[in-house]
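>> received
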Amino acid sequence: MICEDCGSLQDVDYTINYFDLMDFPTTFAVQSQELTQRFRQLQTHVHPDKYSNKTSREQTNSADWSSLINKAYKTLSAPVERGQYMLQLEGEQMPQDNSALNTTFLMAMMERNEEVEEAQDSATLERLNAIIAKELEANAQQLSAHFEANDLAAVKATLVEMKYLHSIQSSIKKKQQHLMSL
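>> returned
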């Protein structure tokens, strides 16, 4: 990133692995506080304000590195995005359909969506959101185990489930905002 000989900011390597960029092992289990700390450290080295009096090339490199570090941090700090990124590193993609899900889960998600639609008060929505948050946490722990076991089919299924749960959380937030506006 920064030349050891001359101290100038080098051109951005867009092919760099986000884990390598953030100086973290390529594992699903990431300590969020350490990730945030590393993100801030890197940003202090490349932030565009630090390069305002430098050459045009270094200013551009600074903005590009800062943007890449932001993208890496955002990706690695969110479990679903981190899981999808790790799948990409393995040469795998998320399924484009619901084939990774069982019908029991899909039925449960339909029922959850109905519960959100039928909720008449914020307390009910908060209860539903708390349940989903616990399920997402449990899924994140499962993802870590699936990655450790290199069970990519289970990783994909768990990620798809998490995306559904996030979608319901989004519906809950929208419903809460609607109720607050009444």
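>> The helical segments are 18-21, 32-46, 56-77, 79-89, 103-118, 122-148, 152-181.
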